[in-house]
Amino acid sequence: MSEIKEISILKTENLAIGYTSKKSQNIVASNINLSIEKGRLVVVLGKNGIGKSTLLRTIAKVQRPLSGSVLIHQKNLNSISEKDLAKQVGLVLTERLPESQLTVFELIALGRQPYTNWLDKLSKTDLRKIDFSIQQTNIEHLKNKKFYELSDGQLQRVLIARAIAQDTEMIILDEPTAHLDLHHTFKIFTLLQKLVSETQKTIVLSTHQVNLAIKFADEVILFSDNKVKSGSTATLIHNNDFDNLFPKEIINFDKNLQQFIINKK
Amino acid sequence: MTKENYTKHFILLSILLVLLFFVNISLGSVSIPIDEILAFLTGKSTSKESWNIILFNFRIPKAITAVLVGSGLSICGLLMQTLFRNPLAGPFVLGISSGASLGVAILILGSSIFGGFLLTSSISNWSLPIASSLGAFLVLSAVIIAANKVRNTMSILIIGLMFGSLTAAVISILAYFSEANKIQQYLFWSFGSLGNLSWNELLVFSIIYIIGILGTISVIKPLNSFLLGENYAKSLGINIKKSRNIILLITSLLTGVVTAFSGPIAFVGLAVPHIARMIFTSSNHKILLPAVAVLGATILLICDSIAQLPTSEFTLPINAITSIFGAPVVIWLLMRKKRIFV
Q1: Which of A94, B96, B282, B289 is deepest in the core (most CB within 10 A)?
Q2: CB-based contact, B154 to chain A, within 8 Å
Q3: Cα dihedral: B192, B193, B194, B196 (round 10)
Q4: Contact A99/B340, CB-based, under 8 Å?
Q5: Chain B hits for A118, Cβ within 8 Å
Q6: ipTM above 0.95, yes or no
Q7: Which residue range forms the structural domain that includes residue A140?
């Protein structure tokens, strides 16, 4: 059925990601073939430095693919202008924001820039979308604070609110749970899951909180030493794919508990 | 701070500006009664013909120059600080002011070395601004070329600094081989001066200034997005390269024309944006831009009034005043607040 094809919002074909310098290419991962459907919570898992961020940055057009292609709604990322992409993909990055005196409201309002006029005037629709995103993330009480006054957990919610205000079908988050304790990590995951189910957005995030990720994710993109696998969480568990994520002698995947367990000596 | 508060601050600041403008033109080596000045400003003539000439040909052009120079340099500072997301950025740091100085140095000092090649006779009013703008543009073009190759804004800042020291070195070499009177002439220019502008020159200054302001208004949106960093700005659909080039162009234009007409004036471009951010506690350019413009003009009028104050016939070099009073103010503000924002 053609209907099924249409809901595939993000696709990659023989994608190779990495960095180019003048003389050499540093391939981080290659042969990545993904197909992500609308309304899914997708988690990217893998060790440090294996290419999770590189993948997310490539999908978000922050950096170029080495080869292969990224398709959003069947359209090659290269042929989508920055302006149009801004209405389709929202971003939450790990990089620290430059120190400024932006208020939480102003920061979230910046998410409306793809829709505002040249003077960046907020229309009624813009204000409504901003209000909606503030409600969704439960940050009414922070609205008038400066963003530098926030705790890490609060700031993460504000950044997510900014991405929601951007009103895109897809939101990409690079390690939104870094620096957060278990409780706040849990809250972020709950928030993202609620967003997916209530707004039918597609959310792709990378994280190191593997156990929580497996609990919440609809789908997992798994970076192991030589390949990138993806599929629904249940399928990956069934195929024992999680076994290769970490060195087996130290960390094991327990199929029954559906959790990673540290081996005791 | 609420919207009403912003407006209140802004109105107060504007009143202060008008007041200082008035104070500024009432100061000078010849004392003119205040009611006479008021009369002159409302279109009537003063009781002495010489007062008319002093006001119309000297004091009013000088005060207008102070307004244009102060606001122009401050806007440049704001643009650079936001673009490079670095509180230490400014037209000086990027080497643009040094470029302008180089242009002037080649004109003044070079004429004694290269002799007949350059005009050796009297240096006209017009050759100075042209040389200065060319120098500013030269360094800025180099910075733009570097900026398009190097993505990292921090590196661009360092490249700007290097261009600055390079031009300074060339100027020292020029000075080393120059005659004493030429060096003196250059030195006087580098002290900075707001006076000596004819109405014709002021017209040219104003036209370029207005072009710069209009350009700045057109980039308010990208400027605000830059507050989140380049990657976020890009993800919001902002054309980074285009916005960056427009900002650099505006800066070179404004810095070039300001330096040409008033010499290299330090401190204002760097410090005024910080003071504005502290008064208005905002980083939003819709608020900051008018605030910085008015504050910059106000501060330069104050500095110029101080330079006049000794009620003697001397006028202290404006560049020394901006630094002597400006630098401690910035140090105090930063130590008090502890945080430096972009």
Answers
A1: B96
A2: no
A3: -140
A4: yes
A5: 218, 221
A6: no
A7: 94-167
